[in-house]
Amino acid sequence: VAEGARVGRALGFAVVAGSALCWVVSFAMCVLTIVAALIATVAGGGLVIRAWSLFLDRYEHDPARVRLAMGFCLAAATSAEGWLVVAGMIRPWVLAVTLVANVWGGVDAVLRFPASHDVESVFAVKQFLLLVAKAYAYGTGLVAFRQHAVTFGALVLWNIVGLPVFYAMAMPMDPREHVAPSDAHNTDLLVRVWKLAACSSERRACLASCRGWWYRRLADASDSSSIARLAICAAVSPVQRRAFRRRTGRCV
């Protein structure tokens, strides 16, 4: 009986020790995974910030190109959020919140760049509230938060902190350049959409602006390549060809 009791105690101790060892190994692996993910995220963030700094050094005085680059960054962030929904890491309603924040906040900020705004301005307050809403949506809409805690950290670091930091870095050093292309560009996006929907003159002005932008892009393409010039000539209609000739002075 005594021998059986000793064997039972030994087996019980072995089971407890094995369970404790498994818990310690699991915890250590979890910590190592989080640390490795954080190191990779910080290292990747450093490389991206370095690349963004080099881009800004070259195109600091070209707001149109900077706006285009920021638009690509915003589109990439939105695409990543959509992929997380498809992968089942975040709930679908989170994407609706982030789309509102990215369009009303992000697109509006890109369109207004490089206009500066005070901290207490309506623009700044709106951007802050939208970022808070995104962070709350990430925290409450993440599926299995403990399993995807690293994903949550990466989302906050890149989409909540990273994009505003990129925007702040892109602001020109010269305060005299902190102005929007026009008063129309420094208007809230919802107000601009409402004006387009309600006012025919605004729609005509917007169409004329888009048409001018399109002709400028065609002119740049025709300057860069004779093949592009021939492609433009073959693709556009005679009316567009004549309009392009009048605007650019080229016979394509």
Task: Give an overview in words.
The structure is a single chain. This protein is mainly alpha-helical. 80% of the residues lie in helices and 0% in strands. The chain contains nine helices and no strands. The chain has helices spanning 2-59, 63-86, 92-112, 122-141, 149-170, 189-198, 200-224, 226-235, 238-248. It starts with a helix and ends with a helix.
- Beta strand %: under 5%
Helix percent reads over 70%
| Helix/sheet category | mainly alpha
Give average pLDDT, whole number: 77
Main sheet characteristics:
none
The tally of helices reads 9
Question: Distance between termini?
Answer: 104 Å
Give me the strand/helix succession. Answer: HHHHHHHHH
Query: Which stretches are low in confidence, meaning pLDDT under 50 for 5 or more residues running?
Result: none
Count of distinct strands: 0
Q: Give Rg in angstroms.
A: 27 Å
